[in-house]
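Issue: ligand-bound run for FE2/S2 (inorganic) cluster - logging full I/O for the record.

Environment: standard queue, default settings, no custom constraints.

Inputs:
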Amino acid sequence: MTSKEVAEPASGDSFEVEFAGSGVTVTVPPGVSIVDAAAEAGVEIETSCREGTCGTCESEVIEGVPEHRDSLLTPDEQAANDVMFPCVSRCLSGRLVIDR
Ligand code: FES
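Outputs:
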């Protein structure tokens, strides 16, 4: 049996996040959370669990399509793309604008 290289899912790509409230845009590389990329750019997003389970980091989505990785939103809420949890969630559209 040969082991097959599994391609990184889209969520492994880097993407841009604009923090509308701060006027800051960052590139989020693979393996780095939006929260950490924000902190590096001086945008503090309050966190607690960092696992998508507590809701502390809930952020309004202004533009773009999040890849929801939280355990809080129902499928319908995820599909609405109104809010996201940037401690775990990523981006399917290459660019997100969130209210931070
Ligand atoms: S810090 Fe808990 S959901 Fe993001």
